[in-house]
Amino acid sequence: MSQLSIRGVGRTFEGVHGAAPTLALQPTSLDVATNDFITILGPSGCGKSTLLRIVAGLDTPTTGEVLLDGQRVTGPGADRGMVFQSYTLFPWLTVRQNICFGLREKGMPANEQADIASRFIEEVGLRGFENHFPKQLSGGMQQRVALARALANDPKILLLDEPFGALDNQTRALMQELLLSIWELHKKTVLFVTHDIDEAIFMANRCVVFSARPGRIKNELAIDLPYPRHYTVKTTARFMELKALVTEDIRVESLKSVG
C-alpha cells in the first residue's frame, strides 16, 4: 500500500470582485511509496505549490482527497514536516529554540528536546551556532535550521517547496547533497517542488512533470541514477539524457503558459 495517496485532487479558487473562478489544479492522482524522493517540476503557476499545500493540510481541495497511511488529511499535522523557500524561522528564537519549537509544543521534557536538537544541529552542520539568532545567519544556514526543525518532529513525510530557490548556486549545490545524505540516513519520504531541472533530476528517484495551468501530471519519469549521488553525476551521459527528456517537456508547457 502507498504511504501517501493523492486521489483526484483538484483546486479551484473563487473569483475576486465578480471575476470568473480560477482552475489552478486539475484532478490529480499520485501514489507515493515509503522512502520515495519525488520531485515535482513545472512552469510557474501550474499548481505545484498548491498540491503541496493540500498535502500539508494548509489548503483544502475542491475535489478529491489525500490519504496518509490510509488516513484522510484534513489539516496540518506533525506527521508532515514542511520547509518553504522563504525563511520561516522565528526571529526572536535562537537556532536551538527554533529547532525545539515543535517539541516544546508537544510538551516534551526539556532534556529530551535538548538531545534531539543537538543531534540535528550536528547533522546539518551548525554546531557552534546553537545560540545565534536567524538574523546572524546566512540564507543557507537559515534553511539548514528550517530543515532541522522539520526533522526534529520525526515526520513521516517531508514537504519542501523550492527550499533552495533563494540561495546562490554554490550553496544550493551543497544543500542538495546535504538533503540527500539526510534522506538516505533517515529513510524519510520526500515531496520536493522545484523549478530547476538539474535539481529535480539530481535529487529524485521519481520526477513528476506538471503541465501549464491548469496543472495536471503530464509525465512521470523514473530517475535510474544510483545512490548515493555525487555532484559529478550531473556530467554523466545518462544525466544528460534524462535532462533532455525533461527539458523538452518543460519547454512545451512553458510555451503554453506564455502563449
From TrEMBL:
SUPFAM superfamilies: P-loop containing nucleoside triphosphate hydrolases
Pfam families xref list: ABC_tran (PF00005)
Tree of life domain: Bacteria
Entry protein name: ABC transporter ATP-binding protein
Domain spans labelled ABC transporter: 4-237
UniProt KW DNA repair keyword: no
Gene3D superfamilies to which the protein is assigned, alphabetical: P-loop containing nucleotide triphosphate hydrolases
Residues passing through the membrane, by range: none
GO MF term list: ATP binding; ATP hydrolysis activity
Keywords: ATP-binding, Cell membrane, Membrane, Nucleotide-binding, Transport
Family: Belongs to the ABC transporter superfamily.
